[in-house]
Design brief:
Blueprint (H helix, E strand, L loop, with lengths): L4 E4 L17 E2 L6 E4 L4 E8 L2 E9 L2 H33 L1 E2 L5 E2 L3 H22 L7 H49 L2
Parallel strand pairs: 1-3
Antiparallel strand pairs: 1-2, 3-4, 4-5, 6-7
Helix pairs in contact: 1-3, 2-3
This protein binds zinc ion.
Zinc ion binds next to loops.
Length: 188
């Protein structure tokens, strides 16, 4: 257990004790044997003899340095979170399709299926228009086949994109949570 921190004295009759390291006047409980100087962070032993008390430095805890290091760690984590969020805003922005109302739509399986149907419908319509009654159907079948292949290729590419986005999102959220946990530890 740490000894109680001595507070600086403001016109108190207990002002007799001063820090052995920085000479700051300290207010110390009568029965205390050890205190930490609130000015310089020195760990002090109190020695009393014949009503006179004095302090001796046991070890110096650089409280100020500890505070600064603590603050730096926190700042570093906050910077990392900020960087991660900005990177995700750019990365996620590339993956997210913006809808007409200004909102964003995550790549999902639904638009993939709709796109698939639309491409095939367009292909069938064009093939139908291209086919002359009485002519060989080979040309129309070829046109329709090209659109079916196109729909499959686009569908696979969209599904891959959606899966990649979900993986990237999970990675981002995990990394962010790790940093937030670290931040919670530094501010405790
Ligand atoms: Zn001191």
């Amino acid at each position: 257990m740490n000894p109680p921190a001595a507070s600086p004295v403001v016109g108190s009759p207990l002002a007799a004790i001063t820090c052995d390291h920085c000479a700051a006047p300290l207010s110390v409980p009568d029965d205390a044997r050890f205190v930490i100087c609130s000015h310089c962070g020195s760990r002090l032993e109190i020695q009393r003899s014949g009503g006179v008390a004095c302090t001796h430095v046991l070890e110096k805890i650089d409280a100020r340095t500890a505070r600064v290091e603590h603050g730096l760690t926190e700042l570093l984590i906050r910077e990392r979170i900020d960087l991660l969020e900005r990177q995700w805003a750019i990365r996620g922005g590339r993956h997210i399709d913006h809808s007409r109302d200004g909102g964003s739509v995550k790549p999902a399986a639904k638009p993939t299926i709709i796109g698939f149907i639309v491409v095939i419908a367009v292909g069938v319509t064009i093939a139908n228009l291209a086919w002359q009654p009485g002519a060989s159907p080979v040309g129309a079948i070829l046109i329709a086949s090209v659109f079916v292949v196109l729909a499959i290729v686009l569908g696979i590419s969209d599904a891959r994109r959606a899966a990649e986005f979900r993986r990237a999102e999970v990675r981002y959220l995990q990394a962010r949570q790790t940093l937030l946990d670290q931040l919670k530890q530094t501010t405790m």
